[in-house]
Amino acid sequence: MRIAIIDESAARASIIQEGLATFDDCELFVLTERRGLLSRIGEINPDIVLMDLGNPSRDVLEEYFAVSRALARPIAMFVDESDDEAIAASVDAGVSSYVVDGMAPGRIRPIIDLAVRRFHAFSRLQQDLAEAQGKLAERETIDKAKRILMESRGMPEPKAYAELRKAAMNQGKRIVDIAEAIVTAQRLLGDG
User: Cα separations (Å) of 112 from 16, 24, 32, 78?
Assistant: First the structure.
């Protein structure tokens, strides 16, 4: 497992490193500079990112939230103090685990495990949502094509669907592909 530790304080970073000593086959990368952080993380390509921010200002938090939004990997963020606004912003930024005053070596592994599990669970939810939205969009396109066939040919809905299905089978395409062609043709002909 490749783990990037982001911390401007080497002393605080060593606490995280101590907590990771029990991990087998773990490659650690400690980043102490904020400048060019996103590109350096990209070069490292870690499996998880741990950010220890101590007591950051609003500007520093926003900067790290921007980094979080750009990364598609589990992120655990450690801070000394927090408020509801910072917690909400961290969730919006994609932080998997936001830990307030929890910097102890013995807590690092469970926090990483939680961050990874939450990241994967959230990723699955996003994937399911995208799939559902795609199916809904396909269904809407098929319904538009059926309405076009029903209005232009004066056929009932079951017959319009049967025509779409028959054309798809004859052309070796999906029904939605045939439906998109009908909707596009209708739009180009200026009737829709």
Answer: 11, 14, 20, 11
Least confident of 118-127, 142-151, 164-173: 118-127
67 and 9 belong to one structural domain: yes
**Higher pLDDT pick, 173 / 190:** 173
Residue 37 corresponds to which tokens in the numbers above? 């952080």
pTM summary value? 0.66
Res 89: pLDDT: 78
Surface-to-core class of residue 80, CB atoms within 10 Å of its CB (0-12 exposed, 13-18 middle, 19+ buried): middle
Q: Both 85 and 21 in a single domain?
A: yes
Label the pairing between strands 48-54 and 97-100: unpaired
Strands 97-100 and 75-79: parallel
- The sheet carrying 75-79 orders its strands as 27-31, 2-6, 48-54, 75-79, 97-100
How many of the other CB atoms lie within 10 Å of CB of 70? 13
Range of the domain at 135: 130-189
CATH of the domain at 180: 1.10.10.10
Looking at residue 73, its pLDDT comes to 84
